[in-house]
Amino acid sequence: MTRRTLQPGIYYETEAIPHPSYRLVLLNVSEGAERRHVREALVALMEMLAGLGEGRLRSLEQQQAPASAESLAQYGGLDALIGYGRRLFDDAEHEPALTDAARPDFLSYLHEQGPFPALPWATRRRDAEADIALQLTGLNEAAVNCAAIEIWKLIRDQQLPLSVSESFEGYGRADKRGWLGFHDGVSNMGSGERLAALLASADPDWMRDGTYMAYLRIVVDLGVWEARSRAEQELIVGRDKLTGAALVAVARIEEKLVPVTGPAPDEEGTLAEGAEWRDPPQTTDVVLEASHIARANQTRASPAAPGSFRIFRQGYDFLEELCAEHVELGLNFVGFQRDLRVMQQVLHLPGWLGDANFGGLGDEAAIPLLTVVAGGFYAVPPNGERLPGAGLFGHI
Amino acid sequence: MPGGRSVQDEYVEWRLVGSGATIMRIELTTELPEYWSLLAAYKPQLLLRLVEEFAGEDNVSPVDVFGREDALSEGISPQQREKAFSNCMLGRGTSPYNDGRRAICCMRQQSNTLAAAAALATLACTPHTILDGVDGRVRAPNCSEATSFFEIGFAQLGRASDPLLLERLGRLAFEGRVVGFASPPGIYMGKIQPGRLIAPDGSELPEESFCFSRGRLGEDGEGRFQRLTFELPDDADFAMADVRDAATGRPLRYGGELADLVPISVFFQATEPDTVIDIPDPVVVEGAATPNCEEFEALYANFERAGS
């Protein structure tokens, strides 16, 4: 299997830890732009971002050590990933057309009337459908924010045929929990399985050994969530809130459902305890089968199996607004997969997440906990020397 | 298939009815060939009426369904009639009434039988216990492990059905439950993924576009139907060519794309846990629980080196 064809910014390798700071910069191509000018503009942007990662800034080209070391400390480790959205292939948006390359089948716009059956649009929407997505991940917030502004400045200074259409920020948490208060990403795939879930096929050929990115900015209604008891929350999630251990059973006591957890591993815990803690349980209880982690992990099939529907998730939380009357917060769901069909099946299939807003059985499955404020799908071609996906814009 | 899949091997078969590249109707069936064989043997007139109904024709000739003119005569035994039907309509039979040219009546592919489903379920429900060589857990087999209990090719991870059946039934068996088909046994359809097929204005298609038949709604609210006809109602102000899959933004091109949107169900009944107490000793499984291609390639490379 081909290795290292994936662009930087997908932290799939053993021991790789995702950079904690995230910013997505979305770009649209200017009206009437020619392909070669677009390609040259993107090459310039990617080279500028690569330079930033090495501590080189356009505006400080003459700086010497120790100042250059300070710049390296600021931007060092910055990863930039480029993806191409449905809009780039939309001839109705571009005259002349930007590419003759085939559009991957499932690289589509999210449905205007609701992105997924049980996951509706938020009342106030933002637009994350663009020609181009640049994912910036770095070691600190200043790195990704300053890099985003460097993109904006380069476009302005060199009058590149691009414009920033939107931008979204996020951050990782050291405690590995999300806004729901539970551990998040615990049952992500083992590192040995990830490439099988990530690498795209050669349909179309230009995507061979690339991957696809699904971006959803999901708002969490904390009021709805916190109106539920800890036990109710645990049954919806499928994990113990304190330890993160997967629930192993549900006890029925005086008509109440009581979550039952396995032991959480401590430093001396066995591998078996660790596996029990991490993996969704091999349950046959209908309540646990309806939990979020069980819905998203129906079998332990290899990610290469067509029906396994595994997604490598790399999410970042956000806090958008906070005032006395209102708080808007949530998750930048960033999922990478070999085919966007996987994402569509997971979020449409009944029994998976096609009939549950997040998890749970019956009425609990319909609680209005999550809404999508913005979203878009992007093809992430394999890493190239200067510009991944350069061939989209014709031969160099 | 969209997404580059070259294989779609599931418990459902279909046909497209149209003119040239224009799709007018898509029919899916999960009817079992064993049932139709019994109809052929003992209720041949009823079978012929069903064929006529599915083909939209009057007076379908017995020759086209049984391969012989005397199929309905008293001199033919039920067994002879069943065999004649099987030769004509199932497997490699050439009848136009079950190969999609004039109709599709029941499944005919060799793996799409009750016998195959029962064999899969039987072995999946036979208790197996795994001692995980990696982490030391004693647990039910996952689908990758359970596949190895079968002869090569019988259960395939590449299907959507086999891994799910193997793993979920294996868990029931691991808990010491006795499992059996809910009556009547069958392969069923009952719903279609919501939100996928949309009209030109983005709205969901009218409900009457999807006609489920040959079955009933179960007491649990789940559909147990064996036939689905997808066709726009007469008063629709758009054509099938205008229907799009919201996930691709493109019109339907293949029956397999519709089949992809229809969950296929088999219903089972199970006893309480610990009904079976004679659970076999664990099988030790070393290495990764879910091997992937990379590991297979490495093993194959070792094999080649060892042999050279």
Q: How are the SSEs ordered, and which strands pair?
A:
The complex is a heterodimer of chains A (396) and B (308).
Chain A: E1 21-29, H1 35-53, H2 67-75, E2 79-85, E3 132-138, H3 141-157, E4 162-171, H4 191-198, E5 211-220, H5 222-226, H6 230-237, E6 247-253, E7 256-261, H7 271-278, H8 286-289, H9 292-295, E8 312-313, E9 316-322, E10 327-337, H10 340-348, E11 370-380
Antiparallel strand pairs in A: 1-3, 1-4, 2-3, 2-11, 5-10, 5-11, 6-7, 8-10, 9-10
Chain B: E1 13-19, E2 22-29, H1 33-42, H2 44-55, H3 62-66, H4 78-89, H5 114-124, E3 130-132, E4 138-139, H6 143-147, H7 161-174, E5 179-181, E6 188-189, E7 197-198, E8 210-217, E9 223-230, E10 244-245, E11 250-251, H8 255-259, E12 264-265, E13 268-270, E14 283-285, H9 293-307
Parallel strand pairs in B: 3-14
Antiparallel strand pairs in B: 1-2, 2-9, 3-4, 5-13, 6-12, 7-10, 8-9, 10-11
Helix pairs in contact in B: 1-2, 1-4, 5-7
Could you describe the 3D structure shown?
The complex is a heterodimer of chains A (396) and B (308). In chain A, the strands form 2 sheets. In chain A, strands 1, 2, 3, 4, 5, 8, 9, 10 and 11 form a 9-stranded antiparallel sheet that branches. In chain A, strands 6-7 form a two-stranded antiparallel ribbon. The mean pLDDT of chain A is 91. In chain A, a hairpin with a 2-residue loop joins β6 and β7. In chain A, α1 runs antiparallel to α3. Chain A has 2 domains: 193 residues, EIF_2_alpha (Alpha-Beta Plaits); 154 residues, no CATH class. By secondary structure, chain A is of the alpha+beta class. The two termini of chain A are 28 Å apart. The radius of gyration of chain A is 22 Å and the shape is globular. In chain A, 23% of the residues lie in helices and 22% in strands. Chain B is an alpha+beta fold and 308 residues long. Chain B folds into 2 domains: 167 residues, no CATH class; 100 residues, no CATH class. Chain B is 29% helix and 18% strand. In chain B, the strands form 5 sheets. A 4-stranded antiparallel sheet of chain B has the order 1-2-9-8. In chain B, a hairpin with a 2-residue loop joins β1 and β2. In chain B, α1 packs across α2, α1 packs across α4 and α5 crosses α7. The C terminus of chain B is likely disordered. Classes of the chains: A alpha+beta (396), B alpha+beta (308).
